[in-house]
Design goal:
By secondary structure, the protein is α+β, with helices and mostly antiparallel strands. It has a domain of about 70 residues: Alpha-Beta Plaits. Helix content is about 35%, strand content about 35%. The protein has 2 helices and 4 strands, in the order βαββαβ. It has a 4-stranded antiparallel β-sheet with strand order 2-3-1-4. Helix 1 crosses helix 2. The radius of gyration is 13 Å and the shape is globular. About 30% of the residues are buried.
Length: about 100
C-alpha cells in the first residue's frame, strides 16, 4: 500500500434552472456533504462556494493518488445529489487543481 496524503478535488455543480448559487445553498450543501461522509470517503475538509452558474465544491480527501481521490469525492457528491440536498444541480466538467 502506498503513502496516503490529503488531496484536493474540485468539482463543479451546474444549476438546472440557470439560477446562480447562493450562500445559504452552499452552506446547506456543505452540511449535507459532512452528514453523508463515511469512512470510505476519507473526507478531511469541505468548502462550497456559490458561482453564477451553480456551486464550486472543494473536497480534501485522504487518498494514495489523484485518481483515488477523485473516485472518493465523486462517490460522496453523487450520494448527496441523490438525497435531494442539491436537487437542482448536476455535476459539471472537472475543474483542474
Amino acid at each position: 500500500m502506498g503513502l496516503t496524503g490529503m488531496l484536493l478535488v474540485r468539482l463543479p455543480l451546474v444549476s438546472h434552472t440557470g439560477a446562480p448559487g447562493t450562500d445559504s445553498g452552499a452552506s446547506l450543501l456543505q452540511d449535507a456533504l459532512w452528514a453523508h461522509a463515511g469512512p470510505q470517503h476519507a473526507l478531511e475538509h469541505v468548502r462550497v462556494r456559490p458561482l453564477p452558474e451553480g456551486m464550486s465544491v472543494a473536497l480534501f480527501v485522504r487518498a494514495e493518488n489523484d485518481t483515488q481521490a477523485h473516485e472518493k469525492a465523486r462517490a460522496l457528491l453523487t450520494t448527496v445529489l441523490g438525497t435531494g440536498a442539491a436537487r437542482h444541480y448536476s455535476l459539471g466538467p472537472l475543474i483542474p487543481n
